[in-house]
């Protein structure tokens, strides 16, 4: 007696008897091919029309740019040293890096993506509470930056397995990061101690650490701040090494409990002005008590209240349509710090306290962040201390960016640490788990001979040149800051008067403004460009704090830079 056939047997029989006419097969195949081809064909047509309207420099579609990369890598073969396989591996790594950047640029410039993704994201967020790879929607209209959630919910950042894993996450075209914050901070402490300078570390608390109840109802009764499992061990190790640590998390959590008011912006990664004010005041008390600043004539500053409104950086990372109303602009009252005669607060390089900081220092200080100016963390600390402060601040990469800036100043023969008694180093606490804590030298060098071309201060020039190397540009919506600057190495520099002797320059240029890519974001090595150029000293006070990507060649970064703004050809 035959057994009943299984479902799989029946399915195989039915599939085997499926009949498709030749005409239907052609229709299905052609429809499939046309669907696949429609996207690149549409992108080609749009880019050609954009070039005719003057919105693009070249008529050639962007998808062909990758062939330039292959040609450039081939031309580098004679310049690459080592055995055959080492040379091949080096060029392959460079090509992989360019392919990675090429894919990101294609994705970002896709017209279909720009048309569909924002509206699809609005549906997913409104009806399903879904975020994206960088954002998590919380409760009551709050948004959270994913790396901060990962920092709190992930394994201990000092766990040996986690440190080994962190050191192995680099790609074939990038150097692996240094995941151990204790080693980097201890090294910096020793470097400063050798010059009689005290170090105070200030990890800025993560938003969900203070407001976990806004992320999940499971934390509605939470009182104290939440931390990564390794945080207590991290603080203990630093204090054992002689490093002073100021942690504002307990104070901010207490303020939330006692006042019932939010300490952080609902749609932004940063603290509200009131919380920043509290942290600055407590840090001033800590410095007086734990460090013992020398007596100095008090400087009288005044504060002026000002209302600001902005849509937070995390809301912008959701890439919702411009007309979206899910996350409206927030309002806050900042306190602008001014001198007694009414001038905005200014950094003083001769001050005996230097503050290194990231966007938690910049958020109410850097006007381009959208939350006002002259009212940031450093300004408030200066107000409470009643003394001038020096500062080096840069959005993002708090694990190394400001140390690197300080190290470059010293290497150029500019002793930014002269006369300093204290260095306050603020960084977002999430950096402990995701930052690159690479070692940075703090050696005072001699001023290098002027080799690169630099415009006269106060004068704008028009240059042309060829891009020899360019740092990676930021991707809109994938970083929590809407502005970004890249470093560019130019060769064959020529002014309106003709070629320049030496013909090389280090130029900083916009790659991203208000989350919109600038022309420099599309520059490639070997490309001829035109730009308006000024001395970096003319704009440093406005642009030095903006998130910036540097070139890998440390020798180039010792050259005097200038500021350039692209002129589309």
Explain how this protein is built.
The protein has 18 helices and 17 strands. The protein is an alpha/beta fold and 569 residues long. The longest helix is centred in the first third of the chain and has 31 residues, at 22-52.
Please specify the SSE layout and strand pairing.
Layout: H1 7-16, H2 22-52, H3 65-75, H4 84-109, H5 111-128, E1 135-137, E2 143-145, H6 146-153, H7 160-166, H8 181-193, E3 198-204, H9 207-210, H10 231-240, E4 244-245, H11 249-259, H12 273-291, E5 301-310, H13 313-317, E6 330-339, E7 353-357, H14 359-362, H15 377-385, E8 390-393, H16 401-411, E9 422-428, H17 431-434, E10 461-470, E11 484-495, E12 498-499, E13 505-513, E14 516-517, E15 528-535, H18 540-543, E16 548-549, E17 561-566
Parallel strand pairs: 3-4, 3-9, 7-8, 7-9, 11-16, 13-17
Antiparallel strand pairs: 1-2, 5-6, 10-11, 10-15, 11-12, 11-13, 13-14, 15-17
């Amino acid at each position: 007696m035959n057994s009943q056939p299984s479902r799989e047997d029946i399915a195989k029989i039915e599939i085997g008897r499926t009949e498709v006419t030749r005409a239907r097969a052609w229709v299905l195949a052609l429809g499939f091919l046309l669907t696949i081809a429609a996207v690149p064909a549409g992108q080609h047509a749009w880019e050609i029309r954009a070039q005719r309207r003057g919105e693009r420099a070249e008529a050639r579609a962007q998808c062909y740019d990758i062939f330039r990369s292959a040609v450039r890598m081939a031309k580098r073969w004679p310049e690459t040293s080592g055995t055959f396989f080492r040379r091949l591996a080096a060029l392959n790594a460079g090509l992989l890096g360019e392919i990675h950047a090429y894919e990101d640029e294609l994705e970002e410039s896709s017209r279909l993506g720009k048309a569909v993704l924002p509206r699809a994201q609005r549906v997913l967020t409104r009806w399903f509470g879904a975020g994206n790879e960088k954002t998590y929607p919380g409760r009551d209209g709050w948004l959270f930056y994913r790396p901060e959630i990962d920092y709190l919910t992930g394994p201990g950042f000092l766990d040996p397995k986690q440190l080994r894993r962190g050191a192995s996450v680099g790609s074939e075209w990038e150097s692996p990061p240094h995941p151990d914050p204790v080693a980097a901070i201890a090294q910096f402490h020793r470097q400063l101690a050798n010059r009689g300078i005290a170090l105070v570390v200030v990890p800025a608390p993560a938003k969900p650490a203070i407001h976990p109840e806004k992320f999940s109802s499971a934390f509605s009764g939470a009182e104290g701040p939440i931390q990564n499992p390794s945080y207590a061990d991290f603080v203990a190790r630093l204090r054992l090494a002689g490093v002073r640590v100021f942690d504002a998390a307990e104070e901010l959590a207490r303020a939330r409990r006692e006042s019932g008011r939010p300490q952080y912006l609902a749609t932004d990664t940063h603290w509200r002005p009131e919380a920043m004010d509290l942290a600055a005041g407590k840090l001033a008390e800590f410095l007086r008590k734990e460090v013992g600043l020398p007596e100095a004539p008090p400087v009288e500053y005044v504060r002026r209240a000002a209302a600001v409104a902005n849509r937070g950086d995390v809301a912008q990372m959701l890439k919702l349509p411009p007309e979206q109303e899910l996350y409206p602009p927030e309002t806050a009252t900042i306190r602008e710090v001014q001198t007694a005669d009414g001038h905005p607060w200014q950094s003083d390089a001769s001050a005996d306290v230097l503050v290194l900081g990231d966007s938690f220092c910049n958020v109410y200080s850097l006007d381009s962040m959208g939350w006002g100016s002259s009212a940031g963390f450093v300004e408030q600390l200066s107000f409470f201390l009643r003394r001038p402060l020096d500062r080096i601040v840069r959005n993002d990469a708090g694990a190394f960016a400001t140390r690197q800036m300080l190290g470059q100043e010293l290497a150029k023969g500019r002793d930014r640490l002269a006369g300093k008694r204290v260095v306050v180093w603020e960084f977002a606490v999430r950096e402990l788990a995701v930052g690159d804590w690479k070692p940075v030298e703090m050696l005072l060098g001699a001023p290098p001979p002027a080799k690169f071309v630099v415009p006269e201060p106060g004068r704008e020039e028009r240059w042309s040149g060829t891009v020899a190397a360019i740092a990676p540009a930021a991707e809109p919506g994938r970083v929590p800051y809407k502005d970004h600057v890249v470093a560019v190495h130019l060769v064959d520099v020529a002014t309106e008067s003709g070629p320049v002797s030496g013909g090389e320059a280090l130029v900083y240029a916009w790659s991203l403004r208000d989350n919109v890519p600038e022309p420099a974001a599309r520059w490639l090595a070997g490309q001829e460009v035109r730009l308006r150029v000024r001395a970096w000293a003319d704009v440093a006070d406005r642009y030095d704090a903006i998130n910036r990507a540097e070139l890998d060649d440390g020798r180039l970064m010792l050259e005097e830079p200038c500021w350039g703004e692209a002129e589309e050809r």
